[in-house]
Amino acid sequence: MSSQPQGNNYDGVEVPQIPARLLLVDDEPGLREAVQAYLEDSDFIVDVASNAREGWELLQQNLPDLVISDIMMPEVDGYQFLKQMREDPQFKALPVVFLTAKGMTTDRIQGYQAGCDAYISKPFDPEELVVIVKNLLERRAVANANSSDGNPDIAALAGQIARIENMLKGKSGISPTPAPIKIDLTPREQSVLDLVAKGLMNKEIARRLETSVRNVEKYVSRLFTKTGTNSRTELVRYALEHGLTQ
To answer: Coil, strand, or helix at residue 161?
Structure first.
């Protein structure tokens, strides 16, 4: 059953949120294709890799919102793949779900000690996987929203900056489309949006525009409301897709 994407209401118009991007890493073609199809039917964008090395390359190209990885893979297993992610600042806070045929308690403990966020034994109900993925994404969104400039989640910020940079590198491949509603931005909102799209955080934007961090926070909040987005990453992706920034 396909779930409907949630949206934000702005001036009486429902604005759909951009689907979350997932990376699925599994060396079993049949399972990989079946899980990919189910996740895409559940309104996710899914990149797939047949092994950890492929998965690592895809991480560099398109930073996902969450990774789903098998454990028992040739050459580089899931534990090693997760260790490599956790040692890189831009992937340190990335939610990871392990899929594995190993269901012993000791194996689960090893998975959690390695830094995974959830652990599902094969065979599993794909609907359960979707629920777990959605819960992890919601928790991460809340954590990001609650972080302040005074006490930022450095790993999350590093991940957002890396993701924005990846989008900017591939900007030539993004075809602007008309926005679902007319977006009227003030000159100052446009200036803030342009600087957010360059990967600057609030303190840097405040220095550039010679204003306070609090004012920048207000402008960024207004941009979230006007575009129906919930994070800087979604905001930049939306702005690039709809031609709101150069």
So the answer is: helix
What percent of the chain is modeled with pLDDT above 90? 21
Summarised one tens digit per residue, pLDDT across range 22-69 is 999 999 999 999 999 999 999 898 999 999 999 998 888 878 889 999
Q: Are 46 and 39 in contact (CB under 8 A)?
A: yes
State how far the Cα of 36 lies from the Cα of 23, in Å rounded to an integer: 9
Distance CA 236, CA 234 (A): 6
The DSSP element (H or E) to which 25 belongs, if any, is strand 21-25
Both tokens assigned to 27: 């060396």
Q: Could you tell me the sign of the dihedral formed by the alpha carbons of 10, 15, 17, 18, in that order?
A: negative
Nearest to 97 by CA among 24, 147, 160: 24
171-191: average pLDDT: 68
* CA-atom Rg of the chain in angstroms: 19
Handedness of CA 237, 50, 25, 61 (dihedral sign): negative
